[in-house]
Amino acid sequence: MVRAALDSRQIGRGPSAFAAYVPAATVVAASLLAALPIVSNSGWYPDFGYLVFIGWRLLRSDPWPAWWAAPLGLVNDLFTSYPIGFSVALWSATMLALDLIDRRTMWRDYWIEWVLAAVFLAIDEWMQWQLAAVVGADLPFTTQLPSLVIAILVFPLAAWIVSRTDRWRLGR
């Protein structure tokens, strides 16, 4: 313990130079995963940008202010081919809802965060299904279930990657 405290590699080591922009950059990078050449008849892959966004927001509420949800949602709309404004509205509402939840709850543990993420991911999939119905792609909701289940099951991995990125970002 004393040896670790006296280790010169830890003393004076602070956040990386662009620490304030790393959370936004990781969300944009996750949104860019939608540009991978994956060919599928049904969209089985989740919205990775939204997964990482929720992971960052549940891990820390301080990396960005609430208004950053709109530009990050716009970037997600541009790369995932959603109509412009879909992710902007959804991500802004998510940020406001999580701010409200933070003020109302005394503590959260791993399971509560997973349930919160599952609820927000289900709302995201439901809104995508409603939007598809509005534009004429009248499909049963069961077509959304694979991506919803995959997103809920992948969230712990996304949260773990976000926490490791945060440790690197803060120099810990």
UniProtKB/TrEMBL annotation:
Keyword match Transmembrane helix: yes
Transmembrane segments: 18-36, 79-98, 110-129, 141-162
UniProt keyword terms in alphabetical order: Membrane, Transmembrane, Transmembrane helix
Domain of life: Bacteria
Protein name per UniProt: Rod shape-determining protein MreD
